[in-house]
Design a protein that fits this description.
Layout: H1 2-22, E1 26-36, E2 39-43, E3 49-65, E4 76-82, E5 85-92, E6 103-105, E7 112-124, E8 128-135, E9 141-147, E10 151-158, E11 168-175, E12 181-188
Parallel strand pairs: 3-12, 5-10
Antiparallel strand pairs: 1-2, 1-11, 2-3, 3-10, 4-5, 4-7, 6-7, 7-8, 8-9, 11-12
């Protein structure tokens, strides 16, 4: 009986692993080839075309170039640091999600950490601007000096009408119930074609 239970458990794990891997996020970055309703076909980084749907309640944003000196108190912000130094920062026109942590490791750069919060103070500096951030979920405060030498942008909310062939898009898509790729957060890339880490 014990051997049967062990065999069943092993079989269950073998079946679950491919299912989990199958729904791992697919990272998409490249120019839009065509649009059919809410479905986009993109030439991905590997040169192959890939299609995905925009989720009905998903968000579409554009990452407009940002002068860090325009950052002000009240801005919703994410700051990525590596070895204690900022490497990327963005603000956005909407709040972080309810489940957003105060900080997390970047998927594409395990040596870097992303901090999420709201700017409570901003002072101009010789390099750019010094900000104080109240982190998500009572995560405390952090301070950082940001310059325009790092990747920097602002996420502005867009509508489907703003999505055009030829634009570069970024998305993390997962498989829906019908097996098709679906993106709940899609970015129209306008930040000098400098790909950014867009999260999990």
């Amino acid at each position: 009986m014990r051997n049967r239970l062990c065999a069943f458990a092993a079989l269950s794990l073998c079946c679950a692993a491919p299912a989990l891997a199958q729904n791992a996020p697919v990272r998409i970055y490249g120019p839009i080839v065509s649009i059919d309703g809410s479905s986009l076909t993109v030439t991905n980084r590997d040169g192959h075309t890939i299609s995905f749907d925009l989720a009905p309640q998903g968000r579409i944003v554009s990452n407009e170039p940002l002068d860090v000196k325009t950052i002000k108190a009240g801005d919703v912000i994410a700051i990525d640091e590596e070895m204690g130094k900022p490497i990327q920062a963005h603000t956005q026109a909407f709040a972080h999600g309810a489940n957003a942590p105060a900080q997390r490791k970047l998927v594409t750069n395990p040596n870097a950490t992303r901090y999420l919060g709201v700017v409570t103070g901003a002072e101009p500096s010789a390099a750019g601007i010094k900000v104080t951030v109240e982190l998500q979920k009572n995560g405390g405060k952090m301070q950082a000096e940001l310059s325009n030498n790092i990747v920097h942008y602002r996420n502005e909310t867009e509508s489907m009408a703003e999505v055009k062939p030829g634009q570069f898009v970024m998305a993390n898509a997962t498989r829906g119930e019908n097996g098709k790729l679906v993106s709940g957060f899609t970015t129209i890339e306008k930040n000098f074609h400098r790909p950014v880490d867009i999260g999990d």
